[in-house]
Amino acid sequence: MTGTHARRQGGGTNATDERRRMSVPRLSRGSRLVVAVAALLLFSSVARAQGEPPREEGKFHKPELVELVKLDPTIKLDIRYATPNNFLGRPVYAEARAFLQKPAAKALVRVSRKLREQGYGLVVFDGYRPWSVTKVFWDATPEDKKVFVADPAKGSRHNRGCAVDLSLYDLKTGKEVEMTGGYDEMTERSHINYKGGTDGQRRLRDLLRAAMEAEGFQVYEPEWWHYDYKDWKRYPILNISFDEIGRKQ
Ligand SMILES: [Zn+2]
User: 101 forms bridges with which residues in the sheet?
Assistant: First the structure.
């Protein structure tokens, strides 16, 4: 018999006796109902704070998420969040797909076209991300690494379908190029102005940046792979799964 079990057995009788001895005020049926309703309201507001996206005021564009590979089949996908090969070590997406709001997707296709003339294709790690996944990332990330994840209380630009994580692949070999650091690496090597690495790695990182900026994307400086489309503020935070896109938006 374990100690815990023994304590529980003995304690049960004592606790009952104690309750009998104590003069607990009895609540009327009406008061009990009020207490129950108050507890329920408190519980639901806590649940909302934890499980639902922030509510934003104002006017937004109607979301129109489109699948990148349908617009440009030369865009390669390496959706790490649909595999265990990501910083969480487990898949958080049911499907390896990537979407952006239509104007951002079209701008990305223009980037892809220009880079192909220079011998490179785009490889996309992530686009639209449901808000619930941003929440999972935030909760799983230690305090000193929070610069690498978005606060779910504000939502991520990925949640608006206006951010893309990407790199380049070599058109001749079909292989992803080497940048100054790996995707989702939470170190200084990820910074867009990191001076280390090889000349070749920095050249490719800067080539991607110039091509993206020319089409209205802005890099998130701590992450060489993350770009926000200029109109991100005009789109609402979304929390629909990939298979709901086109049906629920
Ligand atoms: Zn990102």
Answer: 65
